[in-house]
Specification:
Helix content of chain B: 25-40%
Number of domains of chain B: 1
Number of domains of chain A: 2
CATH architecture of the largest domain in chain A: 3-Layer(aba) Sandwich
Shape of chain A: elongated
Radius of gyration of chain A: 22 Å
Largest sheet of chain A: 9 strands, mixed
Number of helices of chain A: 8
Radius of gyration of chain B: 21 Å
Strand order of the largest sheet of chain B: 9-8-7-10-6-1-4-5-11
Number of strands of chain A: 17
Largest interface: A-B, 99 and 82 residues
Oligomer: heterodimer
Helix content of chain A: 25-40%
CATH class of the largest domain in chain A: Alpha Beta
CATH topology of the largest domain in chain A: Rossmann fold
CATH class of chain B: Alpha Beta
Shape of chain B: globular
Strand order of the largest sheet of chain A: 9-8-7-10-6-1-4-5-11
Distance between the termini of chain B: 57 Å
Largest sheet of chain B: 9 strands, mixed
Number of strands of chain B: 13
Distance between the termini of chain A: 68 Å
CATH architecture of chain B: 3-Layer(aba) Sandwich
CATH superfamily of chain B: HUPs
Chain lengths: 318, 255
């Protein structure tokens, strides 16, 4: 029995999630077959094969960079090799491809999985209801299961070396994809602030309640000698620009101090800031997931804590 | 452009104390409040903005018992023209739900179908693309920008790290919508009252010719996460806690 791992890469670089998916696959103790498809991906195969028993390489300019092409190639490879499990990231790309493969081949799919176990059948664990509940699911008996894994849940540091073989196969893609054409990447706008360079980040989330309260946090950041950053909802509401966003869809930061104010700590946010030296969280919900990554916590309304803290720090700094 | 939007009513668990029922099959819902799924609200807004710009109709659909109708009324108040509810309990898995939704959609006239990219309760992020594939139409997941061209749409997809990618997608198509694509409008109580006259159709699974569907994924049990390492909590009044935190920060040399 084999486990397929879909290798995600972008602009010539392997994505971290590919190694996390390899790690998830290795834990199943079966043959690990990595699927590496795209245009000019040969160089990447050397890096992937280190952790796989086999890398299937499909090099085809018609694939890059088109998710429909990736889907059809994966469909054909699954039909041919009949792996027991196909693992890919629950990333933007995984969300575009995995469900399509499941329907194309009539296979069960479980997404955003945090744990995979073999309990007779394949059992997956998912984190639901804002991370407050875990749930175990069984997948219907099938030849193959499609599983997408949550970013940051399967550690690439636990990978063991396999140094398998690289197998190049002809592309099963017969024609160009015309209904879904890749136009191009749009790089994030570069503004005046680079939050990744700050030693102290004072970061706000939904708990701030109103745009009118942003200046309060700005003042605190200034007094602390830090820079203002935020979680996703604040950017979604248009209260702060995208360049201030911490998390998987924003920036990954590693400041000396990360002060999370009214941020619940969704895993997408935590993935972007867990590398901080010191994390302090203020949230009125004592069960907010942010408190499990923070070293210090205050359970209170941020709108009360912010002015109080600003005042105390002013006093300390004289 | 005729647009169908799939919406879902979800419990608001962000700041709530969530408990699991004794059966282990669901959370205790009696003390929770319910709202339209945040991603779906952006999808409804996007559909209405497209209608306002290019004409056409917006139909909102959902699956659930009668008490989910308030999110349909809310969407009608935002500017949708018509609503459809399939009268049944929320199906156990996304595959079953996708079968029902695609049965509804295929009987409608549409150019574009919008879903939320995920839902705040189960965050499966899968139903929309399953439906697209069942209908045999082109899809794009995690869409955060739409530009209408002649017979196609330029859709921007959100990738990681702030990067976007743009696809040119032929219609008919299905997109799953990411939050932040627009600013959803405010819905007033009087607006909801006025929208009461708009049509809300109720269908049963048998109206759709749907018999029993075998789920692809079955829930075994729900449980609370084991208590992990937690922050050291700083207690006292707001003033006291702020003072203690300030002195800790000074002590650690970060101030």
């Amino acid at each position: 029995m084999a486990v397929f791992v879909f290798i995600e890469h972008r602009e010539g670089k392997l994505m971290d999630i590919s190694f996390e998916a390899l790690s998830a696959a290795q834990k199943l103790n079966d043959e690990v077959i990595a699927v590496l498809s795209g245009e000019n991906v040969g160089d990447l195969a050397e890096k992937v094969v280190k952790y796989a028993d086999k890398v299937i390489v499909v090099d085809d300019p018609k694939i890059d960079t088109n998710n429909e092409a990736y889907t059809r190639v994966l469909d054909e490879l699954i039909k041919k090799e009949m792996p027991k499990v196909v693992i890919m990231g629950h990333t933007s790309m995984g969300m575009d491809i995995a469900p399509a493969v499941a329907i194309d081949l009539g296979l069960p799919i479980a997404t955003d999985v945090v744990k995979i176990s073999k309990d007779g059948n394949i059992k997956v664990t998912r984190s639901i209801h804002n991370g407050k509940v875990l749930a175990d699911y069984y997948l219907k008996d099938a030849e193959t299961y499609i599983i997408t894994i949550r970013t940051g849940e399967f550690s690439a540091e636990e990978l063991s070396e396999k140094n398998g073989k690289i197998e190049r196969v002809d592309s099963p893609l017969k024609e160009e994809i015309t209904n879904k054409k890749f136009v191009g990447f749009v790089q994030p706008e570069v503004g005046g602030v680079d939050i990744t360079q700050a030693d102290i980040l004072v970061s706000v989330g939904r708990g701030i309640k109103d745009k009118e309260n942003i200046p309060l946090v700005e003042e605190l950041a200034k007094i602390m000698g830090g820079v203002l950053s935020c979680s996703r909802p604040i950017v979604d509401y248009g209260w702060l620009p995208k360049e201030r966003q911490v998390g998987t869809s924003g920036k990954t930061v590693k400041p000396k101090l990360y002060l999370a104010l009214g941020i619940s700590g969704a895993f997408q946010h935590v993935a972007g800031m867990k590398g901080a030296n010191m994390i302090v969280a203020v949230n009125k919900d004592p069960k907010a997931p942010i408190f499990s990554v923070a070293q210090y916590g205050i359970v209170d309304d941020v709108l009360k804590v912010i002015p109080a803290l600003t005042q105390k720090i002013k006093e300390i700094k004289g | 452009m005729d647009i169908i939007v799939s919406v879902r009513k979800v419990p608001d668990t962000a700041e709530a104390d969530v408990m699991v029922e004794k059966s282990g099959k669901d959370i205790e819902k009696s003390r929770l409040t319910f709202t339209i799924n945040e991603w779906d609200n952006y999808a409804v807004e996007e559909a209405i903005q497209l209608k306002e710009k290019y004409g056409g109709t917006v139909t909102v659909i959902t699956v659930g018992p009668k008490d989910v109708e308030d999110i349909l009324r809310r969407s009608l108040a935002m500017g949708a023209d018509k609503a459809i509810r399939v009268d049944m309990e929320d199906p156990e898995d996304a595959y079953t739900l996708a079968n029902i939704l695609s049965a509804v959609i295929k009987n409608q006239k549409f150019d574009l179908v919008l879903f939320g990219a995920q839902s705040g309760d189960f965050n499966r992020g899968v139903t929309g693309v399953l439906v697209a594939r069942m209908l045999g139409i082109t899809h794009a997941a995690m869409v955060n920008g739409i530009e209408v061209l002649d017979g196609s749409i330029k859709a921007s997809r959100e990738l990681e790290g702030g990067l976007n990618e743009v696809y040119d997608i032929k219609l008919p198509a299905l997109f799953t919508i990411q939050t932040g694509i627009n600013e959803p409008r405010y819905v007033s109580i009087s607006g909801i009252r006025k929208a009461r006259k708009k049509p809300l159709e109720v269908l049963t699974p048998s109206d759709l010719g749907i018999g029993s569907i075998e789920p692809m994924v079955r829930l075994d049990k729900m449980y609370l996460p084991p208590p992990g390492k937690l922050a050291e909590f700083i207690g006292g009044s707001t003033e006291e806690a702020a003072a203690k935190l300030a002195s800790i920060l000074k002590g650690k040399g970060v101030l």
